[in-house]
Specification:
2 strands, 2% strand, Bromodomain-like, mainly alpha
């Protein structure tokens, strides 16, 4: 199974699927924000950035999926972004369900001076909601909890893909084209 996963990771199709999964989540987030009028909080914006990080990883993987160095760079960006997103989503759920007086959520997003995304793209990266508000539920699961599930899935699959890199892949398959 791991050799098959290694084989998939060397195909553009797998990296394209990763790209389109992140694109779907970004489009959904924008629909929630602009279509339904749900105000994103600071942690929501940071989680959005983590999804963009996974999207960047998929683009790196698409560049040269057969090259082990490029593929590993993509996998490590993927894992780092998924881990950061998971930890942000976990903290977000903690603020909503187990609030503590010492835990706070910043009102404004803080990006580096060399990358002021909130100034460049305010409709994407400007936070104006409260982290403690529970604004959307599906199947009795709050949005922050869904994000934990989503990032956990990305993290588990990314770890499996990383581990699979030490297993040889068979060369003849439709996936390797």
């Amino acid at each position: 199974m791991l050799s098959l996963l290694n084989q998939y990771s060397q195909a553009r199709l797998a990296w394209t699927l990763l790209f389109f999964s992140t694109l779907a989540f970004e489009i959904t987030a924008l629909y929630f924000q602009h279509g339904l009028g749900l105000a994103p909080c600071t942690l929501c914006i940071y989680q959005r950035c983590a999804i963009f990080g996974i999207m960047l990883a998929s683009i790196v993987g698409l560049i040269a999926p057969r090259n082990i160095i490029v593929r590993l760079i993509g996998i490590f960006i993927w894992l780092f972004s998924a881990y950061k997103g998971f930890s942000l989503a976990t903290f977000h759920a903690h603020l909503q369900f187990e609030p503590n007086l010492n835990d706070t959520c910043s009102i404004n997003v803080h990006f580096p001076a060399w990358l002021p995304l909130d100034s460049w793209f305010p409709s994407l990266f400007n936070a104006y909601g409260s982290c403690a508000d529970k604004i959307w539920t599906f199947l009795t699961i709050e949005m922050s909890q869904w994000m934990i599930i989503i990032f956990a899935c990305y993290l588990i699959v990314g770890l499996a893909v990383l581990i699979s890199q030490v297993f040889p892949s068979s060369k003849s398959s439709i996936w390797s084209k």
